Amino acid sequence: MADIHLTLQIPQDHPSYAGHFPGQPIVPGVVLLDEVMQAVEQHVPPIELFSSAGVDIPVCKFLAPVLPGATLSLTLTSDGPGSLLTFKLHQATQLVASGSIRTVKKP
Length: 107
Prior knowledge:
- With 107 residues, the chain is α+β, with helices and mostly antiparallel strands.
- It has one domain (4-16, 24-104): Thiol Ester Dehydrase, Chain A.
- It is built from two helices and five strands; from the N terminus they run E-H-H-E-E-E-E.
- A five-stranded antiparallel beta sheet has the order 1-3-4-5-2, with helices on one face.
- The two termini are 27 Å apart.
- The model has no long low-confidence stretch (mean pLDDT 85).
């Protein structure tokens, strides 16, 4: 699989901002991770990624805060079918999150 490059937009009025944090909202890490997982589901061919029971996220680092309405660049990289998938999320030139996703085998 060649690298996949996508642009993600976090809505200015996302409901998570109300509790994270009132008066000075930032995008919760779980929202960033959800955006990454949605992108994986939509853009990575299933045959190349997962033919298993589910996924595991062994590494996920949130490196900088993301403000409401942010435009983010996502890069997904894999070494081949069934391999570890890595992601990098940038806001402009700043790396804001990175990690890896792998399959969980059926018992």
